[in-house]
Amino acid sequence: MGRGARPAISALMAGAALVAAPASADTLREALAEAYRTNPNLQAARAEQRAVDEGVPIEKSAGRPSVDASGRYSEFLNQSSTSFTAPERAITANVDLGVPIYSGGAVKNAVRAAKERVQAGQADLRATESAVFSQVVAAYMDVIRNEAIVGLAANQVDVLSTNLQATSDRFEIGDLTRTDVAQSESRLAIAQSDFRSAQANLIAARENYIALVGSAPIDLQPPPPLPGLPDNPDVAVAAALENNPDLIAARERAEAAGYDIDVAGAGRLPRVSLFTGYGYENFLGTRGGAVIDDPTLPDADVSQTSASVTAGVSVSIPIFQGGRPAALQRQAQARASAALEGVIAAERDVIAQVRAAYSSWQASLAIIESSRSAVAAAELSLEGVRAENSIGNRTILDVLNAEQELLNAQVELVTARRNAYVAGFSLLAAMGRAEARDLGLDGDGLLYDPQINFERVEGKWFDWDRDPAPAVRSTRTVDIPAQDADIPRE
């Protein structure tokens, strides 16, 4: 491969320096911002969190006053022969108000558990945000890498085509053998096959980018440096143990499970509530109607309506429930134990993720340096082999092998740069530092704060309060044309 391949690499994979992007180009920040606005997985996670928020007012409702009203219209079809004042029909209405006073702590602890689960859900939302951003970064870097590989593969086809023509010309004058021509033809065929494969990989990378971001990639620019990368794995682990959202969610769920034990135990305790009620009954003029005009009976003013008001205190003391409260509490204790073990499992997983990501990042950085040296050495080697071939000291196969070694080193360098950036971002995500605020997206007014919705619904009382009908907020990609393997040209 000739020297013309080196500018292609530097143009497509220029390290990690942030450069000014043309108006028609996409930057990593723009891709992350668009995914933050339109990614369906992220939008679904936000909706799920809003559903979790409603757990708090649901639990609070058990400790709030309740009002019930009932009404009935009755026809008495068969009256007793000895009941001279029995009515023929009646309307009754009742209104009852109940105010819970004491529930053994069930409501209080259920509300506390619900609030802990809200906190856990918010941490889960952070984790989803980090996961989506990690996928976007990987997809972004995959497009850049595969564009570079397509450029290198195309350059390799051009170089080998030129080599084949030169080899054929030398064969015609008897300077080379038919074997040399066949070797050149074989390498060109392989390079053309690799070029097609690279094009297919680029198309797949671009389609994956569309699925995550919601728009087609246009001349993706080199990404900016990653902020806050740790100096050693111990620093990374310490940050992750404090900020990793999966670990925070596990801890919050363990706290909630502890409150569930008290909720279950409250089933053995008394219940106290205040109550008042109003009752109204109207016989619609039919009470005593059959005997009002009987002269043998004394005159009577038979009332057709009645009303009553009651008030008092209700106390319910469980005596025996067949072992149900104890079973519920043991069940809650077992689940709390599982939740505590889940905290340790999450901690182990986070530590392993952080250390593995740090190791992968460091390895990729080392591979970058090795690959740079390999590219430089392969270029010198190719120049020397070509020069020696021109004087008959090297065969055509030696030239072809040197060209392939240079291509392999260049592809390795491109891949290492992609892997280093993705591993570095994955490390930040595991440390809990790869969310919208960390990436500077707050300046666009994009940030979604789940606490706002929680504070909105936490104290709601009205039974008929509701949100607008559900509507899709993410964007469809059906109208985006199928991607091709064209690469940006300068």
UniProtKB/TrEMBL annotation:
InterPro entries: OMP_efflux, T1SS_OMP_TolC, TolC-like
Superkingdom of source: Bacteria
One Pfam family, short name: OEP
Name of this protein: TolC family outer membrane protein
Transferase keyword on record: no
Keywords of the record: Cell outer membrane, Membrane, Signal, Transmembrane, Transmembrane beta strand, Transport
Residues annotated as signal peptide: 1-25
Primary localization class, coarse: membrane
SUPFAM superfamilies the record matches: Outer membrane efflux proteins (OEP)
Subcellular location, record wording: Cell outer membrane
Entry similarity comment: Belongs to the outer membrane factor (OMF) (TC 1.B.17) family.
